[in-house]
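Cross-posting from the chemistry board since nobody answered there.

I work mostly on the small-molecule side, so proteins are not my area. We synthesized NAP and want a rough idea of how it might sit in this target. Sequence and SMILES are below. Is it possible to get a predicted 3D structure of the two together?
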Amino acid sequence: MENKAFKALVAREGEDKTFTRAIETKNIEDLPEGDVVIKVLYTSVNYKDALSASGNRGVTRNFPHTPGIDAAGTVEEDASGKFSPGDEVLVTGYDLGMNTSGGLAEYVRVPAGWVVKLPQGLTLKESMIYGTAGFTAALSVTKLLGAGVKPEDGEVLVTGASGGVGSIAMRILAKIGYNVVAAAGLMDEAEFSEYEKTLKDLGASRVIPAEEVNDTSGKLMFKGIWPNAVDTVGGNVLATVIKSIAYGGVVTTCGNAAGHELDINVYPFILRGVSLLGVDSVECPMEPRLQVWEKLSGEWKLDNLEDMLTEVTLDGVEERIQLLLNKQSKGRTLVKIQ
Ligand SMILES: NC(=O)c1ccc[n+]([C@@H]2O[C@H](COP(=O)([O-])OP(=O)(O)OC[C@H]3O[C@@H](n4cnc5c(N)ncnc54)[C@H](OP(=O)(O)O)[C@@H]3O)[C@@H](O)[C@H]2O)c1
């Protein structure tokens, strides 16, 4: 492919070790080796992108770097022969946006094994409204269902319900008939009641303040009040949830926004038979990956996908990164690239 110039967000480390971001011009030949060159039309901003963009070495080792763990667009060329020019495709996870130049750019180049053909029933835009967050939410729900959790088993608690993964998990569960209790970490009373209404409109049957699932007493177990839960924040919230799950309940875990440490003991597992199920969207193999996208584009497709959505162009990404880092982001951020 000819060596075109294109725009990309680039995060750089300054001499004072602080990180700044700017829109710069890159060339196709700057992109890493790979089979498929994709012209990116849409991407999104996830918490992990905010970490990469701000120099978190657990996510991105080397700078300057273009973040963006999601990308959707059209194939320009594919050296593997699996895709044809013009095919509509998406990529989420693998190494995209971590140590491989990411989707916050007009072009990406990736291995063919990372690329998913856009499922029927979704537009490129809709696929990125979901993005990694929606995919992870659907994986969490898949795990819960795979463990035999049924709507008649009672409420499912969803933590981080105002975030990308949490809000979509809550909405999918509500759509397929579950009673969802949303734990939302908020603000003053007026804001809470306004936000409670938003979350209920999106499908939550009840909304509780996140502090109710963030116990610091050090107790080994609490009353088993939640039949099952989808946790998206980790840390002490996840520990509190595990200690508060009812007999035989299941908890999925995917996130570390509230911390990566898990201060827990064996009693919920050995006295109540609680199961903790891990969710990983990054290395999820292709077969289950395609099955999850099929659900997201079909049976589980959300009716009002644009609710809780902020749409920006590359210029607006900086503000969204700051909101994510300051834990003030709500719902999803879609980025229209071209
Ligand atoms: N395992 C995977 O494959 C995978 C994939 C995608 C994302 N993730 C992880 O999942 C988590 C959520 O991702 P996201 O994109 O949805 O992020 P997000 O949009 O920033 O949402 C995270 C939510 O967590 C809650 N939260 C943040 N800090 C908290 C704290 N200190 N204590 C309690 N709650 C807190 C907030 O919701 P409330 O205000 O409602 O409490 C926030 O909206 C992140 O840790 C991300 O890295 C993992």
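Reply from a structural biologist on the board:
Welcome over. Reading the output above for you: The pocket of NAP is lined by residues 46-48, 132-133, 136, 160-166, 184-185, 210, 232-233, 237, 254-258, 279-282, 324, 327, 329 (CB under 6 Å). The first helix runs from residue 47 to 53. Happy to explain the token format if needed.
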